[in-house]
């Protein structure tokens, strides 16, 4: 263990914490030395997660910034929005590299964070709704606004160079790096269409994102909106008409890809399955050309990406084909009759949409092979 980087998981009692534990258990360069959670403090980890029996006999502890910083070089935060920023600030002050899976550092403008994540009711479908970290702590102002400019948005396919530079720049300036892991809906949606915007193949105007998520995105805390009898045999949209909190994050990243402001319509749906996100993005093409140019643009953009597969013509992404993995399946096609482009992607919301992407970012941060600990094949059926 001495040759491996010591890491902590803060907020380990939820689904994202469970996935981090599963992935890091087999990681060749990182070792989990601290596991904390409010609800499960004092309990053995394998009693909180029975599937970890025989894997870990660690005891969950209450969070203490001094204790975590004394043990760990990197901390993965799987905490509610608002609370995560406070913990991140405490650990950052103590020199711990932070990989935050909440939304507290994803948005570049503090006013945007305040408008979408400040005081207000939680989303339906769980503490924060499918596609968000469980829970939310309201604040009148951002709890750590001074760290926003330091945070690197952790979508490697778009920001790999910045992620690789983060550790070197942190050492140069005598501060710890801070990574903001993207949300699951933004990951799926941005990867589907960003290359088409960057290549000028589709218009930045009139984009529509229609996405479906499994209920694990709502977190582990029980609630009426994710009760089996309430969701089984049904399919519903929620947080429609521009009210879902992932909307500004998707717009922020696609605006960067397009080189101009993007305002889109995002409609999320709750699907009665445990894992997975399927995102369909509808766009208007620019100019004329071969119908396959949109899929070809994705293939060119993702040619060297270790986790992204661009499907062959006629094949469509399926969440069951990426389950349990850090993989992304994506394609794009053109409907000549309606003159619309459809870009589709499938991910596992708990892996590429959360824990796996966090580990991918940490690998880049620490100089490991980007795929370390993440090469497990998808589970099927």
Explained architecture:
With 381 residues, this protein is α/β, with parallel strands linked by helices. It has helices at 15-25, 45-48, 65-71, 83-93, 110-117, 156-173, 184-198, 228-231, 247-258, 293-301, 351-366; strands at residues 5-10, 30-36, 74-77, 97-100, 152-153, 178-180, 208-214, 236-237, 265-271, 277-283, 308-310, 328-335, 340-347. It has 2 domains: 5-182 and 353-366, NAD(P)-binding Rossmann-like Domain (Rossmann fold, 3-Layer(aba) Sandwich), CATH 3.40.50; 184-349, Dihydrodipicolinate Reductase, domain 2, CATH 3.30.360. The strands form 2 sheets. The protein has a 7-stranded mixed beta sheet. It has a 6-stranded parallel beta sheet with strand order 2-1-3-4-6-5, sandwiched between helices. A hairpin with a 4-residue loop joins strand 12 and strand 13 (340-347). Helix 7 (184-198) packs across helix 10. The longest helix is centred in the middle third of the chain and has 18 residues, at 156-173.
